[in-house]
Amino acid sequence: MASLIGVTSGMAQTPQTPPALFDRALLHARQRRAQALGEVTFLLDRVAEDMSDRLAAVMREFHAPADLWTPGDGLAALRTRLPTIARIAPDATGAETLPFAPESLDLVVSALALQFVNDLPGVLAQVRRALKPDGLLLAAMIGGDSLTELRQAFAAAEAECEGGVSPRVAPFADLRDIGALLQRAGFALPVTDVDRVVVRYANAFALMQDLRRMGAANVLIERRRTPSRRATMLRMAEIYTERFADADGRIRATFDVVWLSGWAPHASQQQPLKPGSAKASLAEAVKKAGRE
C-alpha cells in the first residue's frame, strides 16, 4: 500500500510567487466531496493507463518514486511496478511547499493535478531539486483548449443576459508554455505532447455534473460568489447546443491532456553540441544540395 511522505526539507517556495488564481483549500474540499459522491474517473483512468505505458518504455528500475497530488487513488495501477511509491496528498490548507528532501527521489509522477497549481514554476523547481541526478519527472495535466466550448457558451450567455462576464473556466497553460517552464526549472531533455480527448454529452448540465464529480468545478479565487441566474444557465445550455452539438443533438467537450517529462541533469545524458563545434557548415550543405 502506498505511504504518505512526511519528510520536512526546509525547502521554501520560489521567491516572487505569482498572484494566486486558485482556492486550493476549496479544491481539496471539493475533491473529497467528489470521492464521497462517487468519482467520475474516465479521464484519470485514461491517463493512468497511458502513464503505465510510458513508464514501461523507460528501461530502468525506480527505487524512490513518489506520486504528487494525483486525485483519489488514480495511479493505483502503478503499484505493481512501483511497490514503494509514496503518495503525496494535497495539503488541506492549499499550501504548495513540497515535503521532499533534496535529491531524495528518482521518479516523480503526477496525474491531473498540476493544472490547479498557483505557482507552477515554483513547484517544478521543488521537484527538480528533490530528484536525484538522472531522476525523472513524468506528469499529465489538463491544458491547451480544454473546455473551450463551455468557456465560450458561458461568456456569450453572461454577456447577453447580464451585460458582463465572470471567471468560470480556469485558464490553461499551452504546450509551449509548459515546455519553457520545464527548462526554466532546470530539467534536461524536456518533452511535452498533447492527448486530445473529445467527450460527448446529452447537454451542458450533464458535463457540469461530471466536472463536479471529478472535483473540478470552479475554484478560481475571482469566481462569482452568488448563485448563477437560472435564465443565464438556460441560455448557456442553449448556446452550447447551438454551437457545439453534433447531428444527433449531443454536445462535444474537449479535454487536452498535456504530458510533460524531464530529467534531473546527469553527466551520462545526451548533451547538445557547443556552438561552433559542427564539422560541416550549413552553407556548404546547402551548396552541395543545390549541385545534386
Q: Can you characterise this structure?
A:
- The structure is a single chain.
- Strands 2-1-3-4-6-5 form a six-stranded mixed sheet, sandwiched between helices.
- Helices cover 34% and strands 18% of the residues.
- The protein starts with 23 loop residues before the first helix and ends with a helix.
- It has 292 residues and is α/β, with parallel strands linked by helices.
- The model is unreliable at 1-15 (pLDDT under 50).
- The chain has eight helices and six strands; from the N terminus they run H-H-E-E-E-H-E-H-H-E-H-H-E-H.
Q: What structural class do helix, strand and pairing data support?
A: alpha/beta
| Order of SSEs | HHEEEHEHHEHHEH
Largest sheet: 6 strands, mixed
Count of helical regions: 8
Mean pLDDT: 86
Q: Count of DSSP E strands?
A: 6
Give me the side-by-side strand order of the main sheet: 2-1-3-4-6-5
Helix content: 25-40%
Low-pLDDT ranges: 1-15
Q: Radius of gyration in whole Å, from Cα? A: 22 Å
> Given the C-alpha coordinates, what overall shape results?
elongated
Percent of residues in beta strands: 15-25%
Q: Cα distance, first to last residue?
A: 64 Å
Question: What is the gist of this entry?
Answer:
The protein is an alpha/beta fold. Helix content is 34%, strand content 18%. Helix 3 links the parallel strand 3 and strand 4.
Relevant terms:
6 strands, 8 helices, alpha/beta, disordered N terminus
List the topology elements.
Layout: H1 24-37, H2 42-56, E1 65-68, E2 86-88, E3 105-111, H3 120-130, E4 131-143, H4 148-162, H5 175-184, E5 188-201, H6 204-213, H7 230-244, E6 251-263, H8 282-291
Parallel strand pairs: 1-2, 1-3, 3-4
Antiparallel strand pairs: 4-6, 5-6
